[in-house]
Design brief:
The chain is of the alpha+beta class. The protein has one domain: Glutaredoxin, CATH 3.40.30. The protein contains 3 helices and 4 strands; from the N terminus they run βαβαββα.
Length: 77
């Protein structure tokens, strides 16, 4: 099971990234767990300085960009 973490304070881009990540995982038929990390101290522990960010299995794959579902699909493997 993939662990997808959306790092951000809940802004519109963070919400869109959440939707795109779920869309990508569902399209690939991957079982996943989604976690929203909204506290700044927790976000900074990942070394993220620009949100929204996406972490897959605890590894930051993108930060400061709103990825499309197709861009996220590539990062899930």
């Amino acid at each position: 099971m993939k662990k997808l973490q959306i790092l951000g304070t809940g802004c519109a881009k963070c919400q869109a990234l959440t939707h795109n990540a779920e869309t990508a995982a569902k399209a690939l038929g991957l079982p996943y767990e989604l976690e929203k990390v909204t506290e700044l101290s927790a976000i900074m522990k990942f070394g993220v300085m620009s949100t929204p960010a996406l972490a897959v299995d605890g590894v930051v794959k993108s930060q400061g960009r709103l990825l499309t579902a197709d861009q996220i699909k590539v990062l899930l493997f």
